[in-house]
Amino acid sequence: MRYFIVDDDLASRKMLKEIITEGDIGLVIGEANSGISSLSPITTMQPDVVLIDFLMPELDGIETIEQLRKKGYQGQFIMISQIINKEMVGEAYEKGVEFFIHKPINRIEVLTILRKTAEQIRLQDSLLAIKESLANIVPIKTVYKKQSVKEIVHSILSDMGILGEVGIDDIVAMIEFLFDQKDSMIQLPPLKELYEAVATKSGISFTHLQKESKAIEQRLRRTILNAMNNIASLGAIDYTNADFEYYAPRYFDFQEIRSQMIHMQEGRKNFAKMKVNIKKFLQVLYMEVQEKYNEIQTKR
């Protein structure tokens, strides 16, 4: 990862350069003591990340970012500041700042933020490669597959009684995304990567990727929790119910379902607090959809 540091404080520049070098997280390819003097070298060298001070004479951090964007710089910005307020943070986010490093500079904070930024850049590059790869798929086959996958997902979620829940579109998008990657995939990628991949594919900008990923996780958790309550309700009424016998042990942590059943049978008004295992739910759903999809293709 290639870094450029813009700060009118020489001590801060030296400290940041030392942390980057000793932490073995990249290479500092340049530095500047003002926003004005940074414009030409940054647009020429195109570093991956620019660490930029907020308070500088003549041209402050926000103004420098605006100038660099106008000149075609496409990399990431990390703001360095001793003063943080809501107005400044909001303006910085609007200009594309991903993270803040607070002054006085803390080595652990810098390393954590820079590693997180590097991870995001790698993910962004990976998602771009995936998107370009998907663009080469024959349109008719892609639409045909997605229609089939969506129908199977809807059928399964309908059995659980959650077809109208807020997270259904997210679940469908994730399963379709997994099918687009590799039909023989066995293990799901980390949930964070899956959320961000689906959010990116839906058109969310990279700046708002983290916020949308968290929203996706919340919608999934709420939807799966409702499914657990529905399945527990079936079991509480009839332990031999076919849907209960099939879905309870496969898609969920059965002990959680069992505890909720007891809760319901005892006539308590409020639902018990259940732990939601999102990864297990998506893993089992993906494997089942894959199996049913292959069955359909074989029959055709």
UniProtKB/TrEMBL annotation:
InterPro entries, A to Z: CheY-like_superfamily (IPR011006), Sig_transdc_resp-reg_receiver (IPR001789), ST_Response_Regulator (IPR052048), YcbB (IPR013972)
Keyword set includes Phosphoprotein: yes
UniProt cross-references to PANTHER family, sorted A to Z: TRANSCRIPTIONAL REGULATORY PROTEIN GLNL, TWO-COMPONENT RESPONSE REGULATOR
Domain Response regulatory stretches: 2-118
GO biological process: phosphorelay signal transduction system
Alphabetical list of Pfam families matching this protein: Response_reg, YcbB
Keyword Phosphoprotein tagged: yes
Gene3D superfamilies in the record: 3.40.50.2300
Protein name (database record): Response regulator
Keywords tagged on the record: Phosphoprotein
Alphabetized SMART domains for the sequence: REC
Sites bearing 4-aspartylphosphate, chain numbering: 53
